[in-house]
Amino acid sequence: MQGHPTEFLRLVRYQKRIAPPRAYGWLSDERCERLEHLYDVIAAYGHRSTAPDDHRRELQRRQLAARAERQQIRDDICRDLASERGWTATPRPFSLEALLGQHGGRGHYPQLDHADAFRKKGRPVALITHSYASVEQVLVWADAMGLDAEPLEWSWYSPGTNAVILTRSRP
C-alpha cells in the first residue's frame, strides 16, 4: 500500500541506509537486524485506531514491548561504544554548553538532536547526535561551534537519522 507509514519507513531505510560497518565492535549484525525489526514492529503497530478494543490493547502491548527492547539495545550500544573509548555513557544528557566548558543556558540547535551523552572522569566528553540534518550540515555546524566531529556510518536511533560524534576541539 503506497503512502502507508510502514512502507515509507522501509523506503527510507533501503534508499538511505548503508550496511552497518563491521569495524565497530559495539555494533553487531545481530543488534542492527534486531533494531530494524523493532522499527518495523513499532511502525506497524502505530496504526491501530480502527482495530477492535481487545486487538488494539494487544497491539499496544506489543508496541510497548518493542519500544522497551529497542531502548535496551540502544543503551547497550552506547555502553559498549563508551567502554571502547574510555568513556561512560550517561543516562542524563548534558548541554552543548557543558561539553564546551561554558556556563549558561541550553541553546536550541537543530543539528543536535536525539543526543547520547558521554563522560570521562565525571566530565562531559562527547555527545552523539542522531540528526535529521545531513552529515555535511552537522559537520559545518560543528566546526562553527568549535567541535570535532566524527561521522558514523550508521545511526542506531532511527532510520533516516545521521549519527555524528561531537567532542570538544583542543585549543
Provide an overview of this structure.
With 171 residues, the protein is α+β, with helices and mostly antiparallel strands. It has one domain (5-168). The chain is 45% helix and 17% strand. A 5-stranded antiparallel β-sheet has the order 1-2-3-5-4. A hairpin with a 2-residue loop joins strand 2 (116-120) and strand 3 (123-131). Helix 1 (5-16) runs antiparallel to helix 2 (29-45) and helix 2 packs antiparallel against helix 3. The termini are far apart.
A few lines on this structure:
The protein has 171 residues and is an alpha+beta fold. The chain has one domain (5-168). The protein has helices at residues 5-16, 29-45, 53-85, 96-99, 135-145; strands at residues 88-90, 116-120, 123-131, 147-151, 162-168.
